[in-house]
Amino acid sequence: MTDPNALLQLVPKAEGRQSMKDFKSDQEVRWCPGCGDYAVLAAVQGFMPELGLAKENIVFVSGIGCSSRFPYYMNTYGMHSIHGRAPAIATGLATSRRDLSVWVVTGDGDALSIGGNHLIHALRRNVNLKILLFNNRIYGLTKGQYSPTSELGKITKSTPMGSLDAPFNPVSLAIGAEASFVARTVDSDRKHLTEVLRQAADHPGTALVEIYQNCNIFNDGAFEVLKDRQKAEEAVIRLEHGRPIRFGADGAKGVVRDRATGDLKIVTVTPDNEAEILVHDAHSASPTTAFALSRLADPDTLHNTPIGVFRSVDRPVYDSLMAGQLDTAVEQRGKGDLAALLAGGDTWTVVG
Amino acid sequence: MTSQVSSPAEQADGAVLGEQRKVAGTKDVRRLDRVIIRFAGDSGDGMQLTGDRFTSETASFGNDLSTLPNFPAEIRAPAGTLPGVSSFQLHFADHDILTPGDAPNVLVAMNPAALKANIGDLPRGAEIIVNTDEFTKRAMQKVGYDSSPLEDGSLDGYHLHPVPLTTLTVEALKEFDLTRKEAERSKNMFALGLLSWMYHRPTEGTEKFLKTKFAKKPDIAAANIAAFRAGWNFGETTEDFAVSYEVAPAAKAFPPGVYRNISGNLALSYGLVAASRQADLPLFLGSYPITPASDILHELSRHKNFGVRTFQAEDEIAGIGAALGAAFGGSLAVTTTSGPGVALKSETIGLAVSLELPLLIVDIQRGGPSTGLPTKTEQADLLQAMYGRNGEAPVPVVAPRTPADCFDAALEAARIALTYRTPVFLLSDGYLANGSEPWRIPELEELPDLTVQFAQGPNHTLDDGTEVFWPYQRDPRTLARPWAVPGTPGLEHRIGGIEKQDGTGNISYDPANHDFMVRTRQAKIDGIDVPDVEVDDPDGARTLVLGWGSTYGPITAAVRRLRTAGESIAQAHLRHLNPFPQNLGTVLKTYDKVVVPEMNLGQLATLIRAKYLVDARSYNQVNGMPFKAEQLATALKEAIDD
Q1: Residues of A in contact with B486 (CB under 8 A)
Q2: One-letter-per-residue 3-state SS of B97-124
Q3: What number is the average pLDDT over the span B172-195?
Q4: Taking phi first (over 0 means left), then psi (-120 to 50 degrees means alpha), and beta for anything else, what does residue B200 get?
């Protein structure tokens, strides 16, 4: 039903060669100096020319929060909307205009707290949206309250004795919400971020990209373990489709299936167990293993955090299905005839 | 325009006009100028369907008519109880009428609960047709009848027709291979047949309807048709029904044209499809199911071959959010809801005000606050529509006055939204939504031109001579900003809910700019071109009755009664509640007294008093039902005499 290529062909191509500069708006960027958002903005602006789409057919829609200022800095069409509602607004735009490439920029509070409902329903519908979820595990714009991804017991202004609610794992949540594409990347790893964006852009349907992003003012260093060269080697699991899932110095560790429980576990790779190391299959029809991978990370220490594309499957795209019904209706009943509609079945005539 | 106004007592007598005559045998035929019938039964008895069918028969016969469906919010309330009673009232006449009628001439009561719940509305002398099969001791006790009202003399003042409807229906269907329970279900069609005989209704339409409705179950279709015919024949042959009635077509009441019967929600749906065609923009509806607005979602979802996209969202907020997104993309965008949904949509309406994009917010008002009375009518969302947002966020408000008028009101709301690039409230209500009346089907050439120009290129020259596009550079006449849709090269721009600099649309926290933008957004709405309000004042009255929305019918009927009785009263009815028509202040000051009847506690009156410093008096009813003409006439008479 969904021909990915056909779907992506609906957006017109740019006529000339584009450069990063073409995607920078004339607005002064107003994030705090040192904010991770700068890196993501640069990566996106740098990546856009590669897409080669007419920039007038690209739209960035955001909610409210630090990251949601993003559209102002992109020289495309854009809307900075309401807290949590960007997926809903983008859904109306994407479903009514299939010639547009629609991107949603959101944060952990915006997407997972006030906008949680819209996010899960966008994922379930598989609307053709690319959702960039900047996760800094804190509320930045309201100055430092804990967020729905903050670790349990987080001390903040609103939780001086520690937060009481367990955090969401955005990747687990997205997979549970029937997402057809789920990935995670890190703001500071430009190359990895760009590669994930590339795969998201190529995906027909909703793509959710969780971007670990440092808030150097209210939650500095939250992802340090994933960034520090030495620590990262032990903490980060890089997922690559078709490759055995190994990490650590010289790939000393690997992920295997626990035969007793069916769950995944981490082992030290030995010649005996090397053949059992799980080969990552992002295109698996079942979300089970992708979900299990999303549970490997320790929510407090972030050890064993997989990054990369967890899941990428083809599934009918809502906008295409909707357009298909419109076409079918015309095929079956002809193009709408207003006069006939208004007249209906039972009429009578009054003669003057 | 006739203004034959009868008192309830006259109606109950049957208002006999002209001669009695005999046809085809021994039965008398009497001519009436109008009749009010109420069908009442359990929620599961099919009373709404029965009423709808009788209405269709009546419409195709050419009577003027007005209907009032009245049903509980529960889908199947406990059988045989007072809260479970569902009714359908139909007023039809040989002249133009304005309301579903104050008091029924005929009540069809399918069970004791239906009798008990409705008897209070019946004037003495009214006809009551009861299904005696349901008047068992237990069923009567359930609703508090200690003795049978059919036998204890309590109905002596009425013309009672005891009919064993269930038994007769089962008997009539014994040839069919149906269980007793299945056969009993057709008793509403038996009742419809009987009433169709009594009032000389054409029957082909109903038979055709039943065949289509049960096309996949031909046996059930045949059984229902058999029950329908049996009811007709029962009237024709039994001695209890000695008289049948004719109500001539209302030919003179209607201007020439082709007519159909239409409910408010259907007319509103058609108005939206028509607006989309007239604007040459695709229609996008973002909506979440809510009573009594869901029928618009259902209807529009059937018209995909008109390019109509309907999106059933995860909640009210997503419904309007998706609509606003579609508006940004160049669709004629609509969200439909009722009062509780408007509350949830408020923040997005504010964003639409700030973004200055066209968007229709259709509010089918129902009883509130909170969940309130989901299936009943009210006009209590006016102030919510006017002011229910943070900040200074003016939104135009348009209100239809009758079910058929919902069509024109939808077009008018679309005109304002598209011309002025603004969200617009269309305030209908439960009474208009479900009520129906004849509608002259317009020719397409009569429909307004709603075409819009999207921005195509730069609209501003910088000091250095560079041509640029400014998303908030306004049209000097309408103050509307350009509508530049994605996909237009060179006009890439960013808009949002943060205050914008005049012209450029860039983020601005400048105090003077904010003050200017607040005033400009208000000035844009205040400057919307709306027609003057018309005043109907044939003889220089000193009292004006001012209404809005669905009270038009009852107010006009009350005014007719008063004038027939020799009173002087002027009438004006508002379609535009924001902005008010320019001449409204002058009109109000022409009269010594201004009375404002509303199905709320005085919301329009509050606005009028604040804006025009007029001592407007409220006359209010908030019982979930439309005003009755008689009651309004009495109140207005008191105001005149005061």
Answers
A1: 56-59, 77, 93, 97, 100
A2: CCCCCCCCCEEEECCHHHHHHHHHHCCC
A3: 95
A4: left
Task: Please tell me what DSSP assigns to residue B497.
Answer: S
Structure tokens at B629: 């003409």
Contact, B111 vs B191, CB < 8 A? no
- Residue B132 is encoded by which pair of tokens? 């005696």
Contacts across the A-B interface (CB distance below 8 Å):
209
pLDDT in the model for residue B1:
31
Task: Give the residue on A whose Cα is nearest the Cα of B253.
Answer: A350
Inform me whether the pLDDT recorded for B43 exceeds 90: no
- The 3-state DSSP class for residue A271 equals coil
Question: What is the interface pTM, i.e. ipTM, of the complex?
Answer: 0.97
Nearest CA in chain B to A123: B314
Residue of A97, A100, A328 to mutate for B, most B C-beta atoms under 10 A: A97
Q: Do B59 and A348 touch (CB under 8 A)?
A: yes
- Domain spans of chain A, in order of start: 4-236+282-343, 244-279
Three-class DSSP category at A102: strand
CA B217 distance to own-chain centroid: 33
Chain A residues with CB-CB distance to B443 below 8 A? 339
Strand boundaries in B3-109, DSSP class E = 21-22, 28-32, 34-42, 64-70, 85-93, 106-109
CB B67 within 8 A of CB B100: yes
- Most B CBs within 10 A among A58, A61, A81, hence the mutation to make, goes to A81
Query: Model-level pTM greater than 0.95?
Result: no
Cα distances (angstroms) measured from residue B197 to each of A67, A76, B194, B207, B251: 71, 69, 5, 14, 22
How is residue A128 annotated by DSSP? S
* Strand stretches in chain A, DSSP E: 58-62, 77-80, 101-107, 129-135, 181-186, 207-212, 236-239, 246-247, 253-257, 264-268, 305-312, 348-350
- Determine the distance in angstroms separating the CA of A175 from the nearest CA of chain B, rounded to an integer: 18
Where residue A1 falls among pLDDT bands split at 50, 70, 90?
very low
- Residues in chain A with CB shorter than 8 Å from the CB of B322 are 88-89, 91-92, 95
Instruction: Report the distance separating Cα B155 and Cα B149, nearest Å.
Output: 6
The predicted-structure confidence for A168-188, as pLDDT tens digits, reads as follows: 999 999 999 999 999 999 999
Beta bridge partners of B86: B41
- CA angle A95–A101–A105, rounded 5-degree value: 95
Instruction: Report pLDDT for B25.
Output: 55
Sorting pLDDT into bands at 50, 70 and 90, what band is B20? Answer: very low
Q: Is the Cβ pair A94, B62 closer than 8 Å?
A: no
| Contact across the interface for A100 and B487, Cβ inside 8 Å | yes
Answer whether A88 sits within 8 Å of B486, measured CB to CB: no
Mention every residue, 6+ apart, whose C-beta is less than 8 A from residue A230.
none
The whole-angstrom distance between B486's CA and the closest CA on chain A is 6
Confidence tier at B73 by pLDDT (50, 70, 90): confident
Return d(Cα B341, Cα A46) in angstroms, integer: 42
CATH number of A4-236+282-343: 3.40.50.970
Give me the pLDDT at residue A9, please. Answer: 82
Residue B233 scores a pLDDT above 80:
yes
User: What phi and psi values does residue B593 have, to the nearest 5 degrees?
Assistant: -130, 140
Average model confidence (pLDDT) across chain B: 94
CA nearest neighbour of B142 among B47, B38, B42: B42
**DSSP 3-state assignment of A321?**
helix
Please, are residues B338 and B363 in contact by the beta-carbon 8 Å criterion? Answer: yes
Q: What are the structural domains, with CATH classification, of chain B?
A: 8-253 (3.40.920.10), 259-446 (3.40.50.970), 453-529 (no CATH), 535-641 (3.40.50.920)
Task: Give just the sign of the alpha carbon dihedral B313, B317, B323, B329.
Answer: negative
* Pairing state between β A236-239 and A181-186: unpaired
